[in-house]
Design brief:
mainly alpha, globular, disordered N terminus, two-stranded antiparallel ribbon
């Protein structure tokens, strides 16, 4: 880990404003860099303890080899991102801001119904023990399950008319507001396909033109429910959303530290020499990374804008008693419109003067 953090710091290290004190400069850590550090440490700690538990199990060596292969792939991803390759760098930012990967599930937790949120907490806590469980709500969950089991199961027509909560849990108010906003104002589908159906559409007749069996109705309803949750974009916390907006618009700058120049060998090895020495040459070592890009503020601003366009934020409107959802794409559009209006106004003032 000590080798990964310095190599990635030049990509995601934060800039400190001229008015920041020394303590504030130390405490300001970029979300991407902090997430990468914590993710790598958590994974190694988790599997380091598991390796110790299975130290006398020869069959566990295959699992260790698989995880070491994943770790090497992660190192390669960070190395290519640090070289400015667009896809790896964008993937790291998407994982850090919860558009894909583990953090997306963590951001979905507050939106989920009680029992599903508890199940997700248990799944995440099984990963590294960092998430608390919800044992105090078990009694209410068991009561809800007994109530649903005793109720009559609806058929396909009733499910299509909105009576699908007998098979799956109803959306929470926050999740429903988010899904309705996402369906009405779809963000760029960079990581998730667009959300089209907020209600299940189950075929009422099977291939024999008979009423669809209730077991099939149940399975199709669960498939629709899982598809909706898969396509949902969880909201970011307000301070993080505001900071990412400032990075995407350009009002907040991050200092780009120059990369340390590696010590070049006296002579670059040819592809034939690499084959003789290692058996399979690495194209990047033999010919260099052709997709590398110089990491400039303008380059990073474009990547941050791509990530921010998919990030919503939710605020409670007390006057209207509802959740307000604002998407990054909307905020970017308003910021660019305001910037254009200011430029036109300055040009008009200069012309008239």
């Amino acid at each position: 880990m000590d080798l990964l953090a310095p190599s990635f710091r030049s990509v995601v290290d934060t800039d400190n404003g001229p008015g920041d004190t020394k303590d504030e400069q130390v405490n300001k850590v970029d979300a991407a860099m902090d997430w990468v550090r914590q993710h790598v440490l958590g994974r190694f700690r988790k599997y380091g303890f598991k390796v110790w538990e299975h130290r006398d199990d020869p069959a566990y060596e295959t699992r260790i080899d698989d995880k070491l292969r994943e770790a090497r792939q992660g190192v390669g991803l960070l190395r290519r991102a640090n070289e400015g390759e667009r896809k790896p760098l964008l993937r790291v930012l998407l994982m850090a801001y919860g558009r894909i990967g583990r953090r997306r599930y963590e951001l979905m937790l507050p939106l989920m119904p009680t029992a599903m949120g508890r199940d997700m907490k248990e799944a995440l806590s099984a990963g590294n023990g960092m998430v608390d469980g919800g044992a105090d709500e078990e009694l209410q969950d068991e009561t809800d399950q007994k109530t649903r089991a005793a109720a009559r199961r609806p058929n396909a027509a009733e499910v299509n008319n909105g009576h699908w909560t007998a098979y799956v849990r109803d959306f929470s108010p926050q999740l429903r507001a988010l899904l309705e906003s996402q369906s009405r104002l779809p963000p760029p589908h960079l990581t998730r396909p667009p959300l089209r159906k907020l209600k299940p559409q189950v075929e009422e007749l099977n291939s024999w033109f008979r009423p669809m069996p209730l077991s099939r109705v149940k399975n199709q309803t669960k498939e629709w429910y899982a598809d909706v949750l898969y396509k949902a974009h969880p909201p970011l916390p307000l301070p993080e959303w505001q900071r990412l907006r400032a990075l995407a618009v350009g009002t907040l700058k991050e200092g780009m530290r120059p990369r340390r120049t590696p010590i070049a060998p006296a002579r670059r090895q040819s592809a034939l020499e690499l084959v003789v020495m290692y058996g399979k040459p690495n194209p990047r070592k033999a010919f260099g990374n052709k997709q590398a890009h110089q990491i400039t503020p303008r380059y990073m601003r474009r990547l941050w804008a791509q990530v921010f366009a998919q990030c919503p934020v939710m605020e409670w409107e007390a006057e209207k008693a509802r959740w307000k959802v604002t998407w990054g794409e909307q905020a970017l559009g308003m910021a660019y419109t305001l910037e254009l209006e200011e430029a036109v106004a300055e040009k008009a003032a200069a012309t008239s003067g």
